[in-house]
Write a structure and sequence with these properties.
Mean pLDDT: 79
Largest sheet: 5 strands, mixed
Number of helices: 16
Strand order of the largest sheet: 1-2-3-4-7
Helix content: 40-55%
Distance between the termini: 65 Å
Shape: elongated
Number of strands: 7
Radius of gyration: 26 Å
Structural class: alpha/beta
Length: 328
């Protein structure tokens, strides 16, 4: 997995970038005008000519002023004791290239370890010729349980890289879903947060079924249409004929999609008639199939289950009778 590229992709949504600073660097957010930001995507290199991959460079302005400056966000998935000097090198290169002052930020997203030494100095007996300092956001030192309950999109997504106990993962995912559902964030930002979070935090098949069922109950308890929309990427809700109908349809579509994915993993690609038969099942039948498929060993097991549990019309379309040729 390209951790640097995934992090940059997450923060390349302006709403998520702003929420990142509001949560982790609120003082910087207080004087920065994020309504006029510009992502600088030009390829950059080190003094040795190596390509820089972990940095995100954004041009912004001070609030109520025309004065511009650059924000350099450096993402590190591995600990590097020389990161402070390397970051200084990048800041000097960015300053020389743009002619603008540069505000550096270091995000550490790997396993916990010693924090980089800072500030760094170049000193002589008669004076200090350089002092370089920068904020460090060490995700591995933060508690995911705290941030997954915040209505901040960046904090929600980055909670996937924070510390937690493995037995807390199911609760962490449910808290993520509940918080995102009630957040006013737009659909694009929500989708990015979801994709980033689940790139790192996934459940094994059996636990995934349990969490999906619990998420369905979570959605049923919500009454605002906005909340339903926020969970749309999870359950792929169908049309909404009123809130209650939207919830029921959304759960049915979402759970059938999950069961179909599990069937494909266990049995391989499904014929189109079988897939349609599963999609036509009622919600209780879909949930029952989600349990039964764990014991399936062949496509014939699915066929027999559908013959016992699917509506007759679906069975007739799914299981074709053999063609009989009469002799003259």
């Amino acid at each position: 997995m390209d951790h640097d590229a995934l992090f940059k992709w997450l923060l390349k949504d302006p709403a998520i970038l702003r929420s990142f600073f509001e949560e982790f660097l609120p003082e910087v957010a207080s004087y920065t005008d994020f309504s006029r930001l510009e992502y600088l995507d030009k390829e950059t290199r080190t003094l040795r000519g190596q390509r820089r991959t972990g940095d995100l460079l954004v041009k912004v302005r001070l609030k109520r002023q025309e004065a511009a400056f650059l924000i350099h966000v450096e993402h590190e998935a591995r600990r590097d004791r020389d990161i402070a000097w390397r970051l200084l090198e990048y800041v000097v290169l960015d300053r020389r290239e743009s002619g603008l002052p540069v505000y550096p930020v270091l995000v550490l997203a790997g396993s916990a370890g010693p924090a980089p030494e800072r500030p760094v100095h170049i000193e002589f007996p008669d004076r200090c010729v350089l002092t370089f300092d920068f904020p460090v956001i060490d995700l591995a030192r933060l508690d995911a349980r705290d941030y997954v309950r915040k209505g901040n999109t960046a904090a929600l997504a980055l909670a996937a890289r924070m510390r937690f106990q493995q037995e807390e993962l199911e609760g962490l995912i449910l808290d993520f879903a509940a918080t995102l559902a009630n957040s006013p964030v737009g659909k694009e930002a929500a989708n990015r947060a979801i994709r980033y979070f689940f790139a790192y935090r996934q459940l094994e098949d059996r636990k995934a079924l349990t969490v999906e069922e619990e998420m369905g109950r979570l959605i049923s308890a919500m009454i605002s249409e906005r909340a339903l929309d926020r969970l749309n990427p999870f359950v792929r809700m169908g049309e909404k004929r009123g809130i209650r109908e939207g919830v029921r349809k959304g759960r049915q579509v979402g759970e059938s999609a999950l069961v179909l994915r599990q069937l494909r993993r266990r049995l391989g690609a499904l014929p189109e008639p079988r897939r349609r038969a599963v999609e036509k099942l009622s919600l209780p039948k879909i949930e029952a199939l989600g349990e039964a498929l764990l014991d399936f060993r062949s496509p014939e097991d699915l066929t027999r289950w559908l013959q016992k549990n699917a509506p007759p019309a679906a069975i007739r379309k799914s299981v074709k009778a053999p063609k009989v040729t009469r002799k003259p």
